[in-house]
Here is the input.
Amino acid sequence: MAIRKNSKEKKSAAGHLKIVQPSNLVSDPRLSADNGEVTMGGRIQKAREARGLTVSQLARRTGVLSKTLHNWETNHSEPRANKLQLLAGVLSVPPLWLLNGEGSPLELNVMVNTNETAKLQGKVDRLLELHKQSSRLMFEIQSEVMRLQGNIDAAPDHALARPDDGSDE
Here is the structure.
């Protein structure tokens, strides 16, 4: 929905007041009237989307409600300084860029260090293999316990009694 800026009053040549409506409309509240730059809320949203995060994911990572983050992105409220700093860290952008657009958002495209991720993926693969092995071992142990318990349950009572060693206790 478009929002009109305040009307201006001008006097006609005859001295009568007439209302002049401005021609420019502001359709997105995140755009500033001055130079079209995105506001803080727009920058938060832009950085979040560049990181591939949903509102709820970013909210969870920053410890706020999704509604709060939505209010920040729609410029209904602004984050406090500590949350702004946390947002900047999670989104990997300078806090000043979030605050007032100064500086560069660095690189909003996600840059992946393949060496780091390859090492981590190797560890995940190893952990998955160990999990499979431990699951197989637990199944084998459980099967053996059940087999032994079945043998104990099937044995006659006198077979389970202790042999009398001849001593009186």
